[in-house]
Amino acid sequence: MAVVDIKSIRCPQCKSKNQVHIYKSVNAQEDLKLHDKILTGELFDFYCPYCEYKARLYYPCLYNDPKNRFMVYFIPDIEKGQMIDRTVEMEYPDLPKITKRIVPTFNEFKEKILIFEAGLDDMAIELTKAAVAEAVARKKEQDVNEGYFSLYDKENNTLGFTFFLGIEHTMFTQTTKLDVYRKSWSIVSRLGKKERSMKGFIKIDKAWADNILFRYQRFGFDSN
Ligand SMILES: [Zn+2]
């Protein structure tokens, strides 16, 4: 069941008091509407009926998908790489093989949900993305600011990533063959062992993947 708090929040524009629903946790299976509202971002929309001010209001939200065996904890701006939430640990004590992640941004929150729903491994996806980002930066001669998993075409063996390039943050989508993902998977199955055995919620992001890629390129497959 979703855990919802109702909070009174002052509108940043007109200072009127508004009642806002804060979804502290959401269960994907129990409420498909909430699932969709998370992916569109609507769950975090703030609207003031007094002055019609609209904004995104991000707050900590735990997403739980028991069927696909993953949990993603969105904690805006969290810097920690690992977090053990006692309440969650007590509620779901050591469930085997539940993948638990923390993410600091809404885009990463959404990306993790899409990756796990597609039945993919997020460590292998991050590594694939890091490798593809390097290739895109070379090809376009621009810095890659951010990138997100955006397409999985099983029939055509293709993965796609959407990147934001250069100072203009130009959107650019690059596809790659599933073989790259498979290779990444075999790399992270060795170099990501430590993370797989870690307790609580862990952060698997670009910085993590860059580090793995660096170790792989520098020390090769057998180094740990
Ligand atoms: Zn207002």
> What is the typical, i.e. mean, pLDDT?
91
- Radius of gyration using CA atoms only: 19 Å
Query: What spatial form do the alpha-carbon principal axes imply?
Result: globular
- Element order: H for helix, E for strand: EEHEEEEEHEHHEEEHHEH
Number of domains: 2
Find the count of extended strands (DSSP E, 2+ residues).
12
Strand order in the sheet with the most strands: 1-2-5-6-8
Please give the alpha-carbon distance between the first and last residues.
Answer: 41 Å
Derived structural class: alpha+beta
Task: Describe the structure in brief.
The protein is α+β, with helices and mostly antiparallel strands and 224 residues long. The chain has seven helices and twelve strands.
Q: What are the defining features of this structure?
A:
about 220 residues; 2 domains; three-stranded antiparallel beta sheet; 12 strands; about 35% helix; about 30% strand
What can you see in these coordinates?
With 224 residues, the chain is α+β, with helices and mostly antiparallel strands. The chain starts with a strand and ends in a 5-residue tail after the last helix. The protein is built from seven helices and twelve strands. It is globular and about 55 Å long. The protein folds into two domains: 1-59, no CATH class; 122-219, no CATH class. The strands form four sheets. It has a five-stranded mixed sheet with strand order 1-2-5-6-8, with helices on one face. It has a three-stranded antiparallel sheet with strand order 9-10-11. Strands 3-4 form a two-stranded antiparallel ribbon. The model has no long low-confidence stretch (mean pLDDT 91). The chain binds zinc ion. Zinc ion (ZN) is lined by residues 11, 13-14, 16, 48, 50-51, 53. Residues 11, 13-14, 16, 48, 50-51, 53 line the site of zinc ion.
